[in-house]
């Protein structure tokens, strides 16, 4: 017997409350809206913020995709998919174009998202100013007063210490020219995808009880000094060893046999699609 | 002096606690020092008025608890005042009581017109950021977005306060008290502020280090013409630095004048006690 019989796990009241916070987040781009984060059957810190957003949004006809660091098949992604499927019966997919709701940890898919899609990002640490200011009331005031010296100072320190901006991920962005936002631990490579995104982007932090948003067609600008322009990770001259794609985010791997450094698409479903289409093209060519 | 004061403070009050029927009437002398024994309210600063003239060092001396730090924190907007006015002599702010400005406007004054050196370096520095970064913080806050420029300015300022080049990227938590105070001074000077507040900058430092820091302050006054309020409970420091001196007791100003006059010929019994006990 299943203890929980609500569609999408939550009772309607809970979903409504999350949606209300979401609407406020959409109305104030980049602003962190507090919400009553609920107990979930998965541990906090494992995507409960994203999951709560997904569950509050999903409808019977939606098609869901869940990715964890680019992979659709990771244990985490699979267990989230399972939970949603069991409580909603919705269809799931690996294909980015097929999905209308995409929950992701640490990546934005390579295929550009459309206005018919919503991207939900899981956020461990929503406060971009936390490393310089531990007190929540103080960071709240900084946001309200547009006082982002702290965010700039962190970047300055990295440059002074390492000669470049050392943010591997979660590089802070200005949203709509007003709020500085943590884009979640996506690589810098994905930051530009948020700028003027056609899809609505929602970010949820379960443990920290915050929801925030980048509405469609919103300016998202990565923080950068005049003399140290923002730059994404460079994979100049590299391509995926499996599908041959370039100009996408690549994982750096060490080939166990040869000991060589090899590269491979981080977005596994993108890689698969490229492989399929080249195969198809190959087959078609051989018939031609 | 015929000049207009660069900073004018009128009837500043600051209290900790909400007062009660016993102490609310501030005219009556019903306090134990600065403290209401009935409700526990501390009247830390009571009706303080002062003028700071361009290029001068104004000394504030008084025993522990007399309200010196609280006064400085009020002027620097670290804490809200109960009542009172302050006017800064800059074209944009003429005739404006700066205590009534929005917190954003106050922040802008802090970033452009004021420098502050706190009694405790922990309040003025981010101990786990580099010294260069600590100085850049103030430049960033004032709107600079050029790393090369800010790094160069920071290094020049740190050099001026004798922080060795090879230690500039170090975090101030590794530094001695004297070095921390010098980093604070460099930071306070970073935006060429016309007004500098120094709260007990030499307290707790070795005598030789003290002399070093005092020389530095003198040099800053001489070369940059910055107006300063220097707080100390040490009359020797006041004697060396201040042109004019204010004596505070229990949150009130009890005596003021040219430093030499106050120290040679004190009028108030408390000041007399203070001066003669030093001799
Ligand atoms: N946050 C606070 N809450 C309550 N009382 C306070 C607070 N801060 C200061 N006070 C009180 O206000 C009075 C003035 O303190 P202040 O620190 O301004 O004195 P001071 O002259 O700087 O002393 P010192 O020479 O020891 O630095 C003291 O009685 C102090 O106990
Ligand atoms: Mg003090
Ligand atoms: Zn009282």
TrEMBL record, chain A:
<dbReference type="Pfam" id="PF06007">
    <property type="entry name" value="PhnJ"/>
</dbReference>
<keyword id="KW-0456">Lyase</keyword>
<dbReference type="GO" id="GO:0098848">
    <property type="term" value="F:alpha-D-ribose 1-methylphosphonate 5-phosphate C-P-lyase activity"/>
</dbReference>
<protein>
    <submittedName>
        <fullName>Alpha-D-ribose 1-methylphosphonate 5-phosphate C-P lyase</fullName>
        <ecNumber>4.7.1.1</ecNumber>
    </submittedName>
</protein>
<dbReference type="InterPro" id="IPR010306">
    <property type="entry name" value="PhnJ"/>
</dbReference>
UniProtKB/TrEMBL annotation, chain B:
<feature type="domain" description="ABC transporter">
    <location>
        <begin position="26"/>
        <end position="275"/>
    </location>
</feature>
<dbReference type="InterPro" id="IPR003593">
    <property type="entry name" value="AAA+_ATPase"/>
</dbReference>
<dbReference type="GO" id="GO:0005524">
    <property type="term" value="F:ATP binding"/>
</dbReference>
<dbReference type="InterPro" id="IPR012700">
    <property type="entry name" value="PhnK"/>
</dbReference>
<protein>
    <submittedName>
        <fullName>Phosphonate transport system ATP-binding protein</fullName>
    </submittedName>
</protein>
<dbReference type="InterPro" id="IPR017871">
    <property type="entry name" value="ABC_transporter-like_CS"/>
</dbReference>
<dbReference type="Pfam" id="PF00005">
    <property type="entry name" value="ABC_tran"/>
</dbReference>
<keyword id="KW-0067">ATP-binding</keyword>
<keyword id="KW-0547">Nucleotide-binding</keyword>
<dbReference type="InterPro" id="IPR003439">
    <property type="entry name" value="ABC_transporter-like_ATP-bd"/>
</dbReference>
<dbReference type="InterPro" id="IPR027417">
    <property type="entry name" value="P-loop_NTPase"/>
</dbReference>
């Amino acid at each position: 017997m299943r203890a929980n019989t609500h569609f999408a796990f939550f009772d309607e009241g809970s979903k409504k409350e999350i949606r209300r916070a979401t609407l406020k987040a959409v109305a104030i781009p980049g602003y962190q809206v507090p919400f009553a984060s609920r107990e979930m059957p998965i541990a906090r810190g494992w995507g409960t913020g994203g999951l709560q957003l997904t569950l509050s949004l999903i409808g019977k006809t939606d098609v869901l995709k869940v990715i964890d660091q680019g992979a659709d098949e990771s244990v985490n992604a699979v267990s989230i998919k399972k939970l949603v499927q069991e409580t909603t019966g919705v269809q799931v997919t690996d294909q980015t174009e097929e999905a209308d709701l995409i929950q992701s940890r640490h990546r934005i898919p390579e295929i550009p998202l459309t206005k018919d899609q919503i991207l939900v990002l899981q956020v461990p640490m929503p406060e971009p100013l936390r490393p310089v200011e531990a007190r929540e009331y103080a960071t709240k005031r900084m946001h309200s007063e547009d006082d982002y010296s702290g965010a700039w100072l962190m970047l300055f320190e990295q440059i002074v210490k390492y000669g470049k901006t050392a943010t591997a991920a979660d590089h802070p962005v200005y949203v709509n020219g007003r709020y500085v936002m943590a884009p979640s631990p996506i690589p810098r490579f994905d930051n530009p995808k948020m700028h003027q995104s056609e899809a609505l982007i929602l970010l949820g932090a379960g443990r920290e009880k915050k929801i925030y948003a980048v509405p469609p067609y919103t300016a998202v600008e990565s923080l950068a000094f005049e003399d140290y322009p923002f730059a994404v990770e460079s994979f100049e001259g590299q391509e995926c060893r499996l599908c041959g794609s370039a100009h996408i985010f690549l994982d750096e791997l060490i080939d166990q046999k040869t000991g060589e450094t090899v590269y491979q698409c981080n977005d596994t479903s993108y890689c698969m699609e490229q492989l399929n289409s080249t195969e198809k093209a190959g087959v078609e060519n051989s018939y031609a | 002096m015929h000049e207009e004061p660069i900073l004018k403070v009128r009837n500043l009050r600051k209290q900790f606690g909400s007062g009660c029927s016993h102490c609310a009437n501030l005219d009556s002398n019903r306090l134990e020092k600065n403290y209401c024994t009935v409700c526990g309210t501390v009247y830390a600063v009571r009706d303080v008025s002062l003028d700071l003239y361009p290029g001068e060092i104004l000394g504030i001396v008084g025993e522990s608890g007399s309200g010196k730090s609280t006064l400085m924190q009020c002027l620097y907007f670290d804490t809200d005042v109960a009542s009172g006015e302050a006017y800064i002599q800059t074209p944009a702010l003429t005739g404006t009581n700066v205590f009534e400005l929005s917190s954003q406007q106050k922040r802008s004054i802090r970033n452009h017109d004021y420098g502050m050196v706190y009694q405790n370096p922990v309040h003025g520095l981010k101990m786990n950021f580099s010294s260069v970064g600590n100085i850049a913080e103030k430049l960033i806050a004032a709107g600079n977005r050029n790393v090369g420029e800010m790094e160069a300015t920071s290094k020049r300022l740190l050099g001026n306060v004798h922080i060795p080049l090879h230690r500039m990227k170090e975090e101030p938590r590794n530094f001695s008290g004297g070095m921390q105070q010098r980093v604070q001074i460099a930071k306070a000077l970073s935006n060429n502020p016309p007004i500098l507040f120094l709260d007990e900058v030499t307290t707790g430092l070795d005598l030789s280090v003290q002399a070093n820091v005092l020389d530095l302050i003198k040099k800053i006054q001489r070369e940059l013409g910055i107006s300063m309020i220097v707080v100390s409970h040490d009359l020797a420091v006041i004697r060396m630095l201040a042109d004019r001196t204010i004596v505070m007791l229990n949150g009130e100003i009890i005596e003021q004048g040219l430093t030499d006059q106050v120290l040679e010929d004190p009028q108030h019994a408390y000041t007399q006690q203070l001066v003669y006990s030093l001799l």
